[in-house]
Every structure is written in structure tokens, then in C-alpha cells.
Design a protein that fits this description.
mainly alpha; Protein Binding, DinI Protein, Chain A; 149 residues
């Protein structure tokens, strides 16, 4: 379950990185320079990612245990399902709280690198078949550089 949760977190974070960056870019035209990034790699190489995943793993176990104990006390199946939904919602809120700083730092790094390289659009690498300047490693380095300040 934790591996599935990690995958979901990474995918959601990837979306949160690219959508604001793409939305803030100027409309693409023939002269625009387009960058591409592997947002999954950016997230997993973030200096705070491993600690965030360990924290989420602990919280996930705690919420699972709480849900199991609370559900075991309930006789009504609908109430059991409600308890489980509430614990999953609590876990989702914790995930958001923990991942938000990582997302913001990644978004800032994407914008910084894009501006430095004169890129007007940055897309997810997996969505581009041909072309684009890969800035993944530059973004990772920008995040690490910002973390050391």
C-alpha cells in the first residue's frame, strides 16, 4: 500500500509542478523555446523527498491503525466505511501539508531555470515525442542549490 501511495504522491506532485508553470507561460508560437522535464525525477531527487516519504509512511501506518481500530468498534458497515473514508481524507491532508513545500520549491526551480534558458513553455517530458530542451537536471541542481542557502 505504501508503494502505491508513493506513486500517487509523486504523480500528483508532478502535476502540481507543471500545471502552474505551463499556465504562467506565454502562448506558444513558432519562435518559442520549449523545455521539457521529467517531473517525477525532479520530485524524487528533491533533498527533502526521502524524509517526506518516511514521515508519510509513519502517518499512513498510524491512520491505517486508527481506521482499523475505529472500524472494529462499529457494527454498522456504513459507519465502518465512513470511518475509513475520514482516515483516508486525514491522510490526504497530511500528504498535502508535507508535500506542499517540495512542490513550491520545484515550481520555483522550474521557473528560474526556464527564465535563465529563455524558455517560454515547459512540458512534461513524457508528453513530448520529439523536441524540447531537457532541463530536468538543471531543475534538480537549482533545487539543491537553493537548499544549501
Amino acid at each position: 500500500m505504501f508503494k502505491k501511495m508513493c506513486l500517487v504522491v509523486v504523480l500528483l506532485v508532478s502535476l502540481f509542478i507543471l500545471v502552474p508553470c505551463a499556465a504562467s507561460a506565454a502562448p506558444a508560437s513558432g519562435g518559442d523555446k520549449i523545455g521539457v522535464i521529467d517531473s517525477q525525477m525532479v520530485v524524487t531527487k528533491h533533498p527533502k523527498f526521502e524524509a517526506a516519504m518516511k514521515e508519510l509512511q509513519g502517518i499512513s501506518r498510524k491512520k491505517e491503525d486508527e481506521a482499523r481500530l475505529a472500524a472494529d468498534k462499529e457494527l454498522d458497515e456504513a459507519k465502518k466505511a465512513q470511518v475509513i473514508r475520514e482516515k483516508r481524507l486525514e491522510l490526504a491532508k497530511e500528504e498535502q501539508r508535507i508535500m506542499e513545500p517540495i512542490i513550491k520549491e520545484a515550481q520555483l526551480a522550474v521557473r528560474t531555470v526556464a527564465k535563465t534558458k529563455g524558455l517560454t513553455v515547459v512540458l512534461e517530458k513524457a508528453s513530448v515525442y520529439v523536441g524540447g530542451i531537457d532541463i530536468t537536471e538543471d531543475v534538480v541542481q537549482q533545487i539543491k542549490k537553493a537548499a544549501t542557502k
